[in-house]
Every structure is written in C-alpha cells, then in structure tokens.
Amino acid sequence: MCIKKTLEYNKHTDTIKGLVDHGNMDRTLDLATHALVFMVRGINASFTFLIGYFFSANNMKNEALKDIILGAITEVQKIGLRVRLTACDQGTPNQKALKD
C-alpha cells in the first residue's frame, strides 16, 4: 500500500521511522513510499495477527519480495502453525515472486 513520505523519531527505541526497511535484508536512508504488511489468519480458529511489516521506496522487487515471503512462512511454521495458502493483490512483483 502507498504511504505518505514522512520521518518520525521514536525516543523510546531511539530510531527514526519512515525510511526504507526490509528488515535484516536491507535498510537505506531513502524515504519509504510503500508498506508491505504480513498477517496470519486462522482457518479453523478465529484469529488474525500482524506478524511483520516492511517499508520500501517503490514497489518491492520480486526477488526481495520472494525472500521476505519465504522468511515469513518459515517463521510462522517455527511456532507450529501450518501455512495452507497465501493471498495478495495481483501486482506484477507479487505474481512473479509467487511464481518463483
């Protein structure tokens, strides 16, 4: 999703929010314009949890997106949940990442 370009200082964590942040994979000083949000939802149980979010300067490249998706699935499986499906919009990077 598109987000407003802005910088914000968090005094509790001593960090600046609003920059490109792909977690451990990549952080830059560019202003973020897009947010990528990962959620997990139960099929047989009623729950929905935010499990991660990432910020990019433009649409995320499919290789980086593929790595983040696989990382999210791995982390969810580590806590004992079984991933049955993934859902996303049909943007070109998303289609390519899921195809790969």
Overall description:
With 100 residues, this protein is of the alpha+beta class. The protein has one domain. Helices cover 25% and strands 31% of the residues. The strands form three sheets. A two-stranded antiparallel sheet has the order 1-2. The protein has a two-stranded antiparallel sheet with strand order 3-4. The relative contact order is 0.16. The model has no long low-confidence stretch (mean pLDDT 87).
Short descriptors:
two-stranded antiparallel sheet, 2 helices, 31% strand, globular
Furnish the topology, listing elements before pairings.
Elements: E1 8-10, E2 15-17, E3 19-21, E4 27-31, E5 34-41, E6 48-56, H1 62-78, H2 92-99
Antiparallel strand pairs: 1-2, 3-4, 5-6
Short synopsis of the structure:
This protein is α+β, with helices and mostly antiparallel strands. Helix content is 25%, strand content 31%. The strands form three sheets. It has a two-stranded antiparallel ribbon with strand order 1-2. A two-stranded antiparallel sheet has the order 3-4.
